[in-house]
Design goal:
The complex is a heterodimer. Chain A has 10 helices and 5 strands; from the N terminus they run E-H-E-H-E-H-E-H-E-H-H-H-H-H-H. Chain A is α/β, with parallel strands linked by helices. Chain A folds into 2 domains: 134 residues, Rossmann fold, CATH 3.40.50; 55 residues, Orthogonal Bundle (Arc Repressor Mutant, subunit A), CATH 1.10.10. Chain A has a 5-stranded parallel beta sheet with strand order 2-1-3-4-5, sandwiched between helices. Chain A is elongated and about 75 Å long. Among the domains of chain B are: 124 residues, Tetratricopeptide repeat domain (Serine Threonine Protein Phosphatase 5, Tetratricopeptide repeat, Alpha Horseshoe); 113 residues, no CATH class; 127 residues, Histidine kinase-like ATPase, C-terminal domain (Heat Shock Protein 90, 2-Layer Sandwich). In chain B, a hairpin with a 5-residue loop joins strand 4 and strand 5. In chain B, helix 1 crosses helix 17. Classes of the chains: A alpha/beta, B alpha+beta. Chains A and B meet through helix 1, helix 4 and helix 9 of A and helix 17, helix 18, helix 19, strand 1 and strand 2 of B.
Chain lengths: 205, 607
């Protein structure tokens, strides 16, 4: 028997899900919560194998709830169930420690399969895990964009903003904005310093 | 044209009045009244004589009368006479101890004489300057000036002045170089020149100087002879002050010789005259010496009496000194004004024609000033008007911006509400519907179940799409940077790749992020609809002082001038960015892609 708990602020969803699991005898629904706060208080004291939870709820965000439910590797598996399919939201859930993510609009079979996979120790998400890991990482400073490096190479070759602009079919304003941004990103006082800084970092190769 | 002349007249009246204020101490009015009827040349001669008299007896009054007369002569353009009088007044200043003004007057006289080509006058002024320098202890200067004057006098053969100059030079050499032999030779040279003009006064001085010199050399008998010679002449000419000097020197020689009675007699004679002419300093000196003589003779009562007299005079002189100090402060101020007067005088003589030019200049200046005042007034009025206008404009723009912002905020709020409703109510119901549908087995196998499921799936997808377009959940939950990454994932198609690069994003105001998001959304729409671009790059940067976003596609671009900006929503974007105090620029040419640059300065008013 798989002990399962359901969390969603919409009773219509928890009712629907309950009905689905009741039709499958291998599942035992041990708790149904329409309040994430109540769920976060009661669930840690219960023996639960897997928790299905909504992401977007008024009392507590899904992210926070995941953190409260996942205490270490031995706790229950947590699968997020949502209408949203945006990568950043899914990535956040993954990074908070969720074991799976699936859409509420998926077929029942798909949902059941996801639960099974998660219980087998897999992480189940609609995007490759590597992308999710990378997705929400804060960008480190000092990284120039492709356009910026293109411009900086020409500047290093001695072209003026006007000449660079003509070569790249850009306006001078665009070129100057890029130049300004490069100085600010790398915290260099002037273009000469920027060029030597970029050469040191082998950006211009 | 009248105004400047009135002003000029006012000034000259004022200066004349001031001048009268200065001279009121000495009764010039009564003097002038008494001279009123005689011809001007005679008037001048009399006043010049009076000035010489006052110079020797009462130099202060001499200065007052002199300055008054300078003013009168200047009015009559009597430059030669002006210079003569200035020279006398310079001498009067010398007697009052005001050497600085004395030099200044001498210099003025020297300049006037030079202009007039009067070498003699110039040389006199130069010699007087030398004399003053000597008094000031600047011996080398004194020597140079006196020597210069001697050269000039010898050139023009003026024995009278040569006599005076040699005497001065003798005094200088005697005091400065202590060369008594050379000094005596100079005095004798002076006598030779004086005799040629029979100037006895000058000779009397030379004799006196030689007498004193002899006494210094210890030749007392010789000293007495020369001093007596000088005394004889002075008695003959009734030169009072010089007589005092002769008597006093004689007394000193007698004292040295031990002839105390003779010494006392000479001192008494000197005292008699000195008292008569109120020569206090010398009187004091004589009292002191008389006291010493009486002391030497053992006549202590008299000695004490003279000491008491000396002290009494000292005290009265002290009081006099106090009064004088006040007077001197006043005089100093007056002198400065007179100095100014002299300078003006110089200029007037040198540049007489300048006067007329000055009048025109004054008139022009006044007109120019009036013009400038009117102009400044107009400018100020325009500036104030412009400023008000600018402020009104600024206020108007501000209000518009604020209204835009409020509209945008209301719009975003409404969008959020609709998105939430769609998602929370409709979405959840649809999801539940799907679950329920799933639990139904496909009872009747004619494909109706699968069809219904497909329609429901499409409905859910459509709902999600509308909700996302209304207000993406990721923007609310995760902020702009992540929402942009999501949008890029969403848009990424086989034809167009979207690359988002975010630098240093720390989050910003909700409205600000919404606006930027909306603008990027519109830019992407344009790119996807019209540009046939292969690549879109979005750079979002947050710095301490600025947020900027650079959107670039490599599509077919368009000429900005030709584009109907409203058609592709550029105007709308500009309005949105302006509402958050930002600035947006578009950069595109037909055939070479499209770039939009948005920059929002930070540290301004909070949104």
């Amino acid at each position: 028997m798989i002990k399962i708990a359901l969390i969603d602020d919409h009773p219509i969803i928890t009712d629907g899900l309950s009905k689905v699991f009741n039709e499958h005898p291998e599942f035992d629904v041990v708790g149904v919560y329409n309040s994430p706060v109540k769920a976060s208080e009661e669930l840690p004291t219960k023996e639960v194998d897997v928790i299905l939870s909504d992401v977007s709820m008024p009392e507590m965000s899904g992210y926070e709830l995941i953190q409260k439910l996942k205490k270490g590797k031995t706790g229950p598996k947590v699968i997020m169930l949502s209408m949203f399919l945006e990568k950043s939201i899914i990535a956040s859930c993954y990074q908070m420690g969720a074991d799976g993510y699936t859409s509420k609009s998926e077929s029942t079979d798909k949902i059941l399969a996801t639960i099974q996979d998660v219980l087998d120790g897999k992480k189940v998400f609609p995007f490759p895990l590597k992308e999710l890991e990378a997705s929400n990482k804060d960008n480190k400073g000092g990284i120039l964009s492709g356009r910026e490096i293109e411009i900086l190479k020409l500047v290093a070759d001695g072209f003026s903003s006007k000449q660079v602009a003509d070569k790249l079919f850009l306006s001078e304003l665009t070129v100057n904005t890029h130049r300004r941004n490069m100085l600010k990103k790398t915290n260099q006082p002037n273009v000469a310093a920027l060029v030597s800084y970029a050469k040191q970092n082998q950006w211009l190769v | 044209m009248r105004r400047p002349f009135y002003i000029k007249q006012l000034f000259s009246t004022l200066s004349l009045w001031l001048l009268y204020q200065f001279v009121s101490a000495y009764n010039i009015d009564s003097l002038m009244t008494s001279l009123g009827q005689i011809p001007f040349d005679d008037q001048h001669k009399k006043i010049e004589a009076e000035l010489v008299r006052l110079r020797d007896s009462n130099p202060k009054d001499g200065i007052e009368l002199g300055n008054y007369w300078i003013n009168v002569l200047e009015g009559k353009k009597e430059t030669q006479r002006v210079a003569d009088v200035i020279l006398i007044v310079a001498n009067s200043y010398y007697r009052t101890g005001n050497y600085a003004l004395c030099l200044q007057y001498d210099q003025t006289a020297r300049n006037l004489y030079r202009q007039l080509g009067n070498e003699r006058g110039e040389a006199i002024a130069i010699r007087d300057m030398g004399f003053t320098y000597r008094k000031m202890g600047q011996n080398q200067d004194a020597y140079n000036y006196i020597e210069l004057s001697i050269k000039t006098f010898e050139k023009i053969g003026d024995h009278l002045e040569l006599a005076a100059s040699y005497n001065h030079m003798g005094n200088l050499i005697e005091d400065w170089k202590n060369d008594l032999v050379l000094a005596e030779a100079l005095y004798r040279k002076s006598i030779i020149h004086a005799e040629k003009e029979n100037n006895k006064q000058s000779i009397s001085y030379s004799y006196e100087f030689i007498g004193v010199l002899k006494r210094k050399q210890g030749e007392n008998d010789s000293a007495v002879i020369y001093l007596n010679k000088s005394l004889e002449i002075r008695k003959e000419l009734d030169l009072k002050f010089p007589m005092v000097l002769s008597y006093a020197h004689l007394a000193e020689v007698m004292d040295k010789k031990g002839n105390l009675i003779e010494a006392k007699n000479y001192y008494n004679k000197a005292l008699e005259i000195s008292l008569a002419i109120n020569y206090h300093d010398y009187t004091k000196f004589i009292y002191g010496n008389l006291s010493k003589i009486h002391q030497k003779r053992g006549n202590l009562d008299s000695a004490i009496t003279y000491l008491e007299l000396q002290k009494e005079l000292q005290d009265s002189l002290f009081n006099l000194q106090k009064t004088k100090e006040f007077a001197e402060i006043k005089a100093k101020y007056e002198d400065e004004l007179k100095e100014e007067k002299i300078r003006t005088l110089n200029n007037q003589i040198e540049l007489d024609e300048q006067k007329n030019r000055n009048r025109i200049y004054l008139f022009t200046t006044i007109i120019a000033i009036l013009g400038a005042i009117v102009l400044i007034g107009i400018i100020i009025a325009i500036v104030i008007y412009n400023k008000n206008q600018r402020m009104a404009n600024k206020e108007k723009i501000n209000q518009e911006r604020l209204r835009n912002k409020m509209i945008i905020e209301a719009e975003e709020k409404e969008r959020t509400r609709i998105a939430k409703d769609l998602h929370d109510s409709l979405g959840q119901m649809l999801a539940a519907l799907k679950m329920n549908l799933n639990s139904l087995s496909s009872a009747n196998g004619n494909g109706q179940f699968e069809k219904t499921t497909k329609i429901l799936d499409d409905t859910i997808t459509e709902m999600r799409s509308i909700s996302h377009a209304m207000m993406p959940e990721s923007l609310i939950k995760n902020g702009l940077a992540k929402a942009l990454i999501d949008i890029s994932n969403h848009v990424d198609t086989q034809h167009t790749k979207v690359n988002v690069q975010v630098e240093n994003w720390k989050g910003w105001s909700r409205t600000g992020e919404y606006v930027l998001y909306r603008v990027v959304q519109e830019l992407l729409n344009n790119t996807l609809k019209h540009a046939h671009a292969q690549k879109v790059t979005i750079e979002l940067n947050q710095f301490d002082d600025e947020i900027n976003l650079i959107y670039e596609d490599d599509g077919k671009g368009f000429n900005l001038d030709e584009s109907k900006s409203d058609g592709i929503g550029l105007k709308n974007m500009i309005n949105r960015i302006t509402s958050i105090n930002g600035h947006i620029e578009f950069d595109s040419k037909s055939g070479s892609g499209f770039t939009a640059i948005i920059s929002i300065p930070l540290k301004q008013e909070k949104l």
